[in-house]
Design goal:
The protein contains 16 helices and no strands. The radius of gyration is 21 Å and the shape is globular.
Length: 359
């Protein structure tokens, strides 16, 4: 508990909190300019999220993939890498889980569902590992390769669904086998049939794994050392190339898990996608706001999930276009990135008080 309190009292934690407030204020100003009532809009947003059990459950469902894709970006960043390919890894994980969930039959649920999850995670890891290998062995910038792999993943997934999994007359696959489902029927019933699944628990455990692996193990120490200074890590006898590939592989596994749970726990089928779902790109913002800390990612993903799902409430309750919430999210990210502005705004309120305490 003390560590948690210290985390929130650090300057590095105050900046994102201030950025959230400034983002909400900026969104309110935009609403006022557009002739909308920001108080009604924000109250409608939170009423949408917390107003009934179904919407609260669906908000949790919305938060889950954001946690995993945020962890994917944050993990790579801790190793000095920029994984912009969470979207592709998400899609590949989704497709791998769908293939296993649909094509394999006759397996008991205790084997079928875990196998589909593992395949989705491994494929996401291998997809990211391609970029890691090219970075380690050929010096190719991982930002470029991961972006390119996003598009390859999208078209490969659509090809797979169209040619091997398609439901006749529909633009989606057939349903997965019931034994591959990870939906929590009993919990969904409590939340008025909200689409809750085991992925939420796995996402939280993934954050715990992230923390213990990076800060409590030798391998994690090596990954962080490579991220801080590759030359110093190499001089100390660490295998830099191996750690780069390993970091990207683990990072991709997080995003692959997110995709797998979307198929196995939410939709139970995969569509022919006209565009990327967006969770991988949102994961970049989640990781940034969460300071690439696994527990910070849990909090930032919760915020993003609440804002995203609650934006529909703004439309119904205050006639505010739901797209406006993207302005709020974008401004939050802007203020996190532009820390000089945030420090200038909060300096009279925070840093002065901090100095007085020291005196």
């Amino acid at each position: 508990m003390n560590k948690v309190m210290k985390f929130f009292m650090r300057d590095s934690a105050v900046i994102p909190l201030a950025a959230i407030v400034l983002g909400l204020v900026f969104g309110a100003i935009v609403m006022l300019v557009g002739g909308y009532n920001p108080i009604t809009a924000y109250s409608s947003l939170f009423s949408r999220v917390f107003g009934n059990m179904y919407d609260f459950g669906e908000t949790i469902r919305e938060i889950t993939p954001l946690i995993l894709t945020g962890l994917a970006v944050a993990f790579a960043f801790r190793a000095g890498l920029f994984n912009i390919g969470g979207e592709g890894q998400f899609i590949v994980g989704m497709t791998g889980a769908a293939v296993v969930g649909i094509k394999l039959s006759g397996l008991p649920a205790i084997i079928h569902a875990p196998l589909a999850i593992i395949v989705g995670a491994l494929l996401g890891g291998l997809w990211a590992g391609i970029a890691g290998y090219l970075k380690a062995k050929r010096g190719v910038n991982e930002v470029i390769t991961t972006i390119m792999l996003n598009w390859i993943a999208l078209y490969l997934a659509n090809y797979t669904v169209n040619h091997f999994l398609l439901m006749k007359g529909q633009q989606r696959s057939v349903d997965i086998q019931p034994t591959a489902s990870v939906s929590l029927e009993w919990l969904s019933a409590i939340f008025n049939n909200a689409r809750l699944h085991w992925g939420t628990l796995v996402a939280i455990l993934a954050a715990v794994f992230f923390y213990f692996f990076l800060w409590k193990t030798k391998q994690g120490y090596e990954l962080r050392a490579v991220g801080h200074n590759t030359n110093a890590a190499e001089y100390a006898g660490m295998n830099v190339n191996k750690n780069i590939i390993k970091a990207m592989f683990i990072s991709g596994m997080f995003a692959g898990l997110a995709g797998a749970f979307e198929v196995l726990g939410v939709f139970h089928y995969q569509t022919v996608m006209p565009a990327s779902p967006g969770y991988g790109f949102d994961g970049i913002a989640v990781a940034l706001l969460g300071l690439t800390n696994p527990f910070g990612v849990l909090l930032s993903a919760s915020l993003f999930g609440i804002l995203t799902y609650g934006s529909a409430g703004m439309s119904f309750g205050a006639d505010v276009p739901p797209e406006l919430i993207r302005i709020v999210i974008g401004s939050i990210i802007f203020f996190v990135a532009a820390q000089g502005i945030v420090r200038w705004v909060i300096a009279p309120l925070y840093f002065k008080r901090k100095k007085e305490k020291v005196v």
